[in-house]
Amino acid sequence: MKSIIIDDDAVVRELLAQYIEESPELKLAGQFSTVKEALHFLTKEKADLIFLDVEMPEMNGIEFLEEFKPDAEIVLISSNDKYAVNGFNLEVSDYLLKPISFARFNRCITRLSQKNLGNDTAKHDFLFIKDKGVYQKILIPEIQYIQSSSEYVTIHTKVKRIMLYSSMDNMLSKLPSNFKRVHRSYIVNVDAIEKVNGNSLEVNKQLISVSKTYHEDIMNELGIKMKMTHEVL
After folding, report:
1. pLDDT single digits (tens) 57-90
2. Could you tell me the pTM of the whole model?
3. Are 48 and 24 in contact (CB under 8 A)?
4. Could you tell me the CA-to-CA distances from 141 to 72, 158, 175, 191 in Å, in that order?
5. Which of 197, 145, 219, 202 is CA-nearest to residue 175?
6. How many other β-carbons are positioned within 10 Å of the β-carbon of residue 119?
7. Quick one: residue 204, left, alpha or beta (phi over 0 = left, psi -120 to 50 = alpha)?
8. SS3 of 34, please?
9. Which end of the chain is less crowded, N or C, counting CB atoms within 10 A of the terminal residue's CB?
10. CB burial class (10 A; 0-12, 13-18, 19+) of residue 70?
């Protein structure tokens, strides 16, 4: 999503710009300290997502929405929650309170991505993933499984691995229905499963544990009915 930031606080702009840089689904198109500067940009360019500060000089964020009604997803940001009702009455997508953590930012973007994917009837069969400063094209059918570690995930194909800063929910929101969560640390491509052995799946010669939470769902997906003779992890 093509994104812009409107905030008179340079520190907040820099923080949001960093968060956007770490979000593969977002692209920063501009950052502005006043509504006037942003309007000059919006008369020439279209933004899909606007991070909009409420309290700014000349014209605040609420006034901007009431007067111009931009055709974009709006995420209001403020150090005070008293404007939240005004914002949601104007149908903003989210309301972020300063200081904004990456975890809260990421939850916001995950919801927006899921919403946009739900409205998108022409989904691509690829992702562009940032790896060492370069965006690499990954064909979705080539993804075997995805493994999480702390705040990072590693995408495994048959021939390579790519690590990126993301959540499992965020990754799952970008993938088609044949990708299933089987463990808090694993998402698997159902088409890539080679063997099922009790509570483990074999994918590209890698054994992946299936947790109790997801066991029944993944077995149903695979058309397997089995007695639970072993303790599920």
Report:
1. 889 999 999 998 888 999 999 998 888 888 888 8
2. 0.54
3. no
4. 31, 11, 10, 8
5. 145
6. 7
7. left
8. coil
9. C
10. middle
What CA–CA distance (Å, rounded) separates 53 from 63? 11
Are the CB atoms for 197 and 209 separated by under 8 Å? no
Asked whether the beta carbons of 8 and 34 are under 8 A apart, the reply is yes
What sections of the chain are H helices per DSSP?
A: 10-21, 35-42, 61-68, 84-89, 102-119, 168-173, 212-222
C-alpha closest to that of 106 among 167, 26, 171: 167
| Residue 136 Cα distances to 105, 110, 133, 227, angstroms | 24, 21, 10, 43
CB atoms inside a 10 Å sphere around CB 175: 17
Instruction: Quote the tokens at residue 82.
Output: 């008293």
Angle at the Cα of 98 from the Cα atoms of 93 and 103, rounded to 5 degrees = 70
Using one digit for the tens of pLDDT, what is the confidence trace for 35-48?
999 999 998 888 99
Three-state secondary structure call for residue 23: coil
